[in-house]
Design brief:
alpha+beta, Structural Genomics Hypothetical 15.5 Kd Protein In mrcA-pckA Intergenic Region, Chain A, Pseudouridine synthase, 9-stranded mixed β-sheet, 4-stranded antiparallel β-sheet, 6 helices
Length: about 260
């Protein structure tokens, strides 16, 4: 296994971040500093970071968690608030969240020890879709506001990409985006005159929240991991907009063609 991949599988960092650590001379194999991320290593190679030996590469896992409101999407919190990592029972594994879900929002968030997969799922190049159910304030949302969300909304950090939007009720919508700006859905809805009262992430790529109770989690199967990797590992064409896709049936990972 290449050295950068070994570090990613050991839960140290994403493969790209691992390459930076290696180039900085912070990684040794045996007694020698190695700066080549393509160096072949094994569990017997005595790989160390900053002089601290690394364990053998951990089994790569991915958990789906239904995050409650009030829980923060970090591995550790300096203010003593409860974190998503504390809600997942995974003894011996160093997990971290894939992306963020703000403290006032609830719903589907993923946790993993696989830095390479985390990078694939969050890197803007791959445009992995995420869906949200939003309950909005104000008058019943008008067609004009929905059109603005679908074509792009001007925010302080630029125009958003087109979103997929479906009306669920007078003041409730389902919105699917392929970007990951800070509090983006809340800011988009605010910009069209409808502040968000409640926000729930219902899908991440091909994975649905269906059947997962608030605060509950489950480990994804190898089949689900394979399908999610296939979705995330295929870059979207430059400038491609989100296209409507069929909704998955039941719980779990759907095929790439069924993903939102």
């Amino acid at each position: 296994m290449r050295l950068a991949k070994y570090l990613a599988h050991a839960g140290v960092a994403s493969r790209r971040a691992a390459e930076t650590l290696i180039a900085a001379g912070r990684v040794s194999v045996g007694e020698a500093i190695v700066t080549d991320p393509a160096r072949e290593v094994s569990d017997d190679s005595r790989v160390a970071l900053d002089g601290r030996p690394l364990r053998s590469a951990q089994p790569r896992v991915l958990y789906a968690l239904n995050k409650p409101v009030g829980v923060v999407s970090t591995a550790r919190d300096t203010h003593g608030r409860r974190t998503v990592v504390e809600l997942v029972r995974a003894p011996g594994l160093r997990l971290y969240p894939v992306g963020r879900l703000d403290i006032d929002s609830s719903g589907l968030i993923l946790l993993t020890n696989d830095g390479e997969l985390a990078n694939l799922l969050t890197h803007p190049r791959y445009q992995v879709p995420k869906s949200y159910r939003a309950r909005l304030a104000g008058e019943p949302i008008a067609d004009a506001a929905l059109r603005r969300l679908r074509t792009g909304v001007q925010l302080e950090d630029g125009l958003t990409a087109p979103a997929r939007v479906r009306r669920l009720g007078a003041n409730e919508i389902e919105l699917t985006i392929r970007e990951g700006r800070n509090r983006q859905v809340r800011r988009m809805c605010q910009a069209v005159g409808h502040p968000v009262l409640e926000l729930v992430r219902t899908r991440f790529g091909a994975l649905a929240l269906d059947g997962l109770a608030p605060g509950a989690h489950r480990r994804l199967s190898e089949t689900e991991l394979t399908r999610l990797r296939a979705l995330a590992g295929t870059p979207a064409p430059a400038g491609a907009a989100a296209r409507p896709r069929r909704r998955a049936r039941g719980q779990g990972i759907a095929s790439q063609e069924d993903a939102l």
